[in-house]
Write a structure and sequence with these properties.
Elements: E1 5-13, E2 30-34, E3 38-42, H1 49-57, E4 63-69, E5 72-73, H2 79-88, E6 90-93, H3 105-116, H4 121-130, H5 146-157, E7 164-168, H6 176-193, E8 196-201, E9 212-215
Parallel strand pairs: 3-8, 3-9, 6-7, 7-8
Antiparallel strand pairs: 1-2, 1-4, 4-5
Length: 216
């Protein structure tokens, strides 16, 4: 199954149902994300950007409304279906990164890549060098700075095929130079696969031009 569109119709986190929320391009709207496009979703802290990513990834279902991949309501998907989609169609970098702190940077990346066999080891080494963390490849990520951990997480998220990549505040702790390098890396891989990018931000946003900006 190739995902060409992700459509959110009348979607709202259940925790917001009894609240008066500001006008949003996402919540209580009819929004379609299209494969091959780049979307920047801007929100204040607590606006639900992490919830939106988790809903699309299928790790949370506490929402009102409808979520469709192409024309299919995801509410009927089995666990096996979601696992398949996460291996082949949906890449995800959560805000909390979900790295294993006792494993090294390289071990965290290779662990993901071993499930997909998507990227050559040499390419991973190039990415580590490009983002300036090749000298930390054998350090436990728990001993790395948050910015270094974000760069490990970005590389790991690219180690699979995808139609869409979800990036929740991926560069919040990166300087402009590393932001641009990470953005170019993500854009190059998304372009190679003809994939869409959905990146959230509360301030420091992924520096990719020609983005479609949405407000939560």
């Amino acid at each position: 199954m190739q995902i060409d569109t992700i459509r959110l119709t009348g979607m709202l986190p259940r925790v917001f149902v009894s609240e008066s929320i500001p006008v949003s391009d996402v919540w209580r709207s009819d929004l379609t994300f299209r494969r091959g496009e780049y979307y920047r979703v801007e929100a204040a802290s607590g606006g639900g950007k992490s919830s939106m990513c988790a809903y699309i990834f299928g790790s949370r279902i506490d929402y009102e409304g409808t979520l469709r991949f192409n024309d299919t309501d995801v509410a009927g998907f089995s666990i096996d279906k979601w696992q398949e989609l996460r291996r082949r169609n949906l890449a995800y970098l959560p805000q909390e990164l979900s790295l294993f702190p006792e494993l090294t940077a390289m071990q965290n990346i290779v662990l993901k890549n071993s499930l997909t066999n998507h990227v050559e080891t040499g390419r991973i080494e190039e990415w580590l060098h490009e983002l300036g963390i090749d000298s930390r490849r054998d350090y436990p990520v728990g001993r790395m700075s948050i910015g270094q951990q974000q760069r490990v997480g970005i590389i790991r998220s690219l180690c699979q095929p995808f139609d869409f990549i979800l990036l929740d505040e991926p560069v919040s702790h990166l300087d402009e130079d590393n932001n641009r390098k990470a953005a170019r890396m993500i854009m190059d891989e998304a372009s190679r696969q003809g994939a869409g990018i959905i990146a959230t931000s509360v301030g420091n946003h992924l520096l990719i031009e020609e983005s479609i900006t949405l407000k939560l």
